[in-house]
Task: structure prediction
Amino acid sequence: MKRFSLALALALVVISLVSVGTNLAQSGVLKFWTFEYADAVDPFFVEYIEEWNATHDIKVERQEFPWAQYTGEILTTGIATGEAPDVFFISPGDWRRYAEGGLALPLQDYIPDYLKEDILPASWDAVTLNGNIYSLPFEMEPVALWYNKEMLAEAGVEVPTTWDELVAAAKTLTTSNRYGILIPTNPDYYQNFVFYPFLWMAGGEVMNDDFTAAAINSPEAARALDLWGALVREGYAAPNSTGSDPVDDRFPTEQAAMFVSGYWVYGWLSANYPEFVEKLGVAPIPAPDAGDALKTVYGGWTVMVYSGTQYPAEAAEFAINMFGAEDNARAAAWGIEYNTKLSPRASVIADNQDFYTQFPHDIFANEIFPTARPEPSFPPEIAQAVWEAIQDTMFNNISGADAAAAAADKINSYLLTR
Amino acid sequence: MTTAEPTAIGAAHVAARTGPLSRFQNMNRDKREQAIVAYLFLLPDVLGLLIFVVGPMLLALAISFSDWRLTGTPEFVGLRNYDIILKDPKFGASLGRTMLYTIGYVPAVYLISLGMALLLTRRGRGNFFFRTIYFMPVAMSMVVAGVIWRFMFDPGNGLINEMLGAVGLPTLQWTGHVQSAMVSVLIVAIWKSVGYFMIILLAGIQDIPSDYIEAAQIDGANRWQTFRFIIMPLLRPTSFFVLVVLSINALQAFDQIYVMTRGGPAQATYTLLMYIYEKAFREWNFGYSSAMAVVLFGMIFVLTLVQVRYFRSTDVRQ
Result:
């Protein structure tokens, strides 16, 4: 009995040590990380990786993480512990600090000429810093005003084309069972992202042209902040988040009549709420006053290569050919078959004209996208100042002017420390 | 040691050694083997604690004396981070909210779980059933609890407002309003914790010899007097443990806040842990974040010491 307990105790020690020790890093492998996409999207990655593995010595392993983790701590801890992926998707929100922090491999020398000409100049600008291209654009998702056609018809409400009409429509459509409109309420990059069209159309900007001072302290910016604040304070917009602001389930389940969100909504609804699609309508986000220029924002993740990768040439090739191969079929499939995104490659739009005549792709390609500006990439301190201003107008009864002034102060203090 | 084994006494007479391992060396072979087996069984757990708890704590302390922004090498800066903490208004504000959270959480959980434990001391057929359902939230992850309650708290169509409305009570905005957001995250934490502390207090109550209670009742004490003069004093050690653990938990609240509100709306639920997390993972300022974590550790340590002193000095049994 004694010998048995001794043996058991020793075995436990050995097992725990061995299980800790077997988690060794593998070499000769490229790690490719993304956030979790819907299951229907997996074949896109699986096929590409299988093709790559069959024709290259260095194999690729893909890992995906839940959204909150991926946009939270996963990449940071990976880099800090030396376990960073070689190729990964990066959000516009994070792009700048990775580029400025020297974590991204400059790719301009690996990008073939045909691709440099095919991708829109504005898309290249959004991923270029000091002459270096730090990631590869592969999708563009403009933001628009989605609405429930049935609800608007029942309430006798026309699709709003000015801010006054928008507020009136939201007010009329709000009942005890539903909100008139949904806008993001979680303090985060995504809230800023959906806010930018309103800010820009009112004539406001976050930063000045040479990035040396805040420009948000203006009556135009205050006007945009007041609009968002009013929508939540008056109860026309939901004051809380369901945890997934980009795809808020309250819209297709008829708990809200209008939804400010991106192009991806169509793909999400087709896959998860197909019966709702016939009630779906979409229009550009209204401008402040009649006749004002329409503007919207487009986001879109990009593919980045870690600067510390052991295989820069292979990693760059893998990253580039995912969406940038000379045959643009794969790039097109990403935006047409697996998701609803616009491609930054002009050839994709040109080669798929018949797709882009159907609803809602025609509206996005022809009416909404031409007015779209890429999402700016700010350091976290600046982004935080902006969403704190939005939060203050929504929840703290602070006027747009005061909130904008406070944001400008925070931004200017931060700029002093750069 | 009061065992009267002849070999133990014999060994003690022969050559009692001194020194740090004397207790070990003075044992006979049997006891020594038992001791070795015991230590080996403990070894995986202790190793785990050292590697995954003590190690990172020491590392955090070391990082707190440096300026490290993820990219580049850490630069030693001494006490600079701590200096900045003293002047940082956001630190003070987050700490204030954490205190508010603690003041809401600790008494509520203690009183509710004490009440539930008292109810369950009586013998009854429902006891097993109630103990189980009260404990079930404890077995759940706080993140899962946060997600579920976030749906229940939805102001438009959540279950809570539906129930309130059904009985004519006013509905609240819960996480959608600055005033009620803290209450919302507190409710989730309280709901999740009471089962665990109820079990602990129940065990403490059941430990009290029934003779004392019977004696009190013979002397004519009513229920309240029995509770106040017999149960509460004898429950002190258990209460002490419960209050210490509750304080430690409250000061580190994070999971459900992150999931339900991200510290919003407008920072109404932005506790110190949220600040520490965001400073590290959003702004990549690991030095400052570690310094704040060390300060928080210091505060929890001092608070616990104060509680220990208080309970020792007022212990009925001394």
